[in-house]
Write a structure and sequence with these properties.
Aspartate Aminotransferase, domain 1, Aspartate Aminotransferase, domain 2, 13 helices, 13 strands
Length: 398
């Protein structure tokens, strides 16, 4: 793969908006979606699994009659299915409304449960917003927070992590992967250190689950955040893995002191389980195809377009994520023109991530994320790559 070209100040060009000749397209032709890091469509198999629980099997799983028992049985079977995907026990899976709730429950729940031991938390500068915001909020409640810096690839330093741990450290929260730039953190190493120091470890695997393997036994992780809509399941349902014996308190007060009270949705949970089952069954074949698409796009852009920067690690990254910064055009303008010509992509939603990896100047504003799904075709990627080259070059010529 060609190396990134260093950007020289003398070659700086003014960012301008340049119209690109729209490609003639059939009225029936749909937009090509390449923003799967933001969400995924529900698979037909998932919808079929959910349908009975949206119609005839509508019972409340807390009810004692047959409708309730049927709903409760479906939930427990789904819990078992999801647990198997990460090598966990069914009773270690807590259903939530999504990754935001899961991460808040993990961070705030563990901090409150262990505050009699210490008040020190550790996270990184590139965490998913639910994690970063939850950790910051704890400071106003008497906790202290250490934020690990990352290198240009978005990876933490294991030596830095080790140096930050003190006798008062009670929780480490380091993401499994970054949804913006795709980098995979060294969670196995983090888990080994956390276990050695007796510190509880949480990882946000929102963007990893269903795309790369996760084994709770191997990683020594105590809590894991993940959800359904990033792996072809329904929105509004997520889960938190809580290792047996992990001290944690509920966020919401309730009569039975349940970790996560409230009426569960059998339809959403059954859909989650079906999506998880299919994603892990097809993971190896999907990874192989996605990495081919990823390599093609990375090679094409770095070889054909000057003054670009690959954001994230070149190989330690999610198989469906490519993030580039372009000089001479804003990310918003590039995304806009791509959609006008048939391709849906996205700019960097959280600029904090780009700041953390040292992306500056024009490349800071010119960042675009391309993320693939199981439906993505190599011919579409090739057409999009050529279009990116055309749009960027025309903007610079102007």
């Amino acid at each position: 793969m060609a190396k990134n070209v260093k950007y020289a100040k003398k070659d700086k060009v003014k960012q301008v908006k340049v119209p690109v000749q729209k490609q003639e397209a059939s009225p029936a032709k749909k937009l090509v979606f390449m923003d799967y890091a933001s969400t995924t469509p529900i698979r037909n198999e998932v919808l079929e699994a959910m349908e009975p629980f949206l119609k005839d099997k509508f019972g409340n799983p807390s009810s004692m009659h047959s409708y309730g028992r049927d709903a409760r049985l479906a939930i427990e079977e789904a819990r078992e299915t999801i647990a198997k995907t990460i090598n966990a026990s069914p009773d270690e899976i807590i259903f939530t409304s999504g990754s935001t709730e899961s991460s808040n429950l993990a961070i705030r729940g563990v901090a409150k449960a262990k505050q009699h031991i210490g008040n020190h938390l550790i996270t990184s500068a590139v965490e998913h917003d639910p994690v970063f915001s939850a950790c910051k909020s704890m400071v106003s409640e008497g906790f202290s927070l250490s934020t690990l810096l990352v290198d240009v690839d978005g990876l933490i330093s294991i030596a830095d992590l080790r140096s930050k741990i003190t006798p008062k450290t009670i929780l480490i929260s380091i993401q499994h992967s970054n949804g913006e730039i795709g980098s995979l953190q060294p969670i196995d190493d983090v888990g080994r250190i956390a276990k050695e120091k007796g510190v509880t470890l949480h990882t946000d695997a929102t963007f990893s689950y269903g795309w790369v393997p996760i084994d709770v036994k191997r990683t020594n992780v105590d809590l894991i955040t993940f959800d359904a809509h990033h792996c072809y399941g329904p929105k509004g349902i997520g889960a938190l893995y809580v290792k047996q014996g992990t001290p944690i308190k509920p966020l919401f007060q309730n009569r039975d002191n349940l970790l996560r009270p409230g009426t569960l949705s059998p339809a959403l949970i059954v859909g989650f389980a079906k999506a998880a089952e299919l994603a892990h069954k097809e993971m190896k074949s999907n990874q192989k195809n996605l990495m081919k698409l990823q390599k093609f796009l990375m090679d094409y852009i770095e070889e054909r377009i000057k003054f670009v920067k690959l954001n994230g690690h070149i190989s330690k990254r999610l198989p469906n994520n490519v993030n580039f910064s372009f000089s001479g055009i804003t990310g918003q303008e590039l995304v806009k023109q791509l959609e006008e010509n048939g391709f849906v992509t996205s700019t960097c939603i959280d600029c904090r991530i780009l700041e953390a990896i040292g992306t500056k100047g024009e490349k800071f504003t010119g960042s675009v994320r391309f993320s693939f799904g199981t439906e993505t075709d190599i011919q579409d990627v090739k057409r999009m790559a050529q279009l990116v080259e055309e749009i960027v070059n025309k903007a610079r010529q102007a």
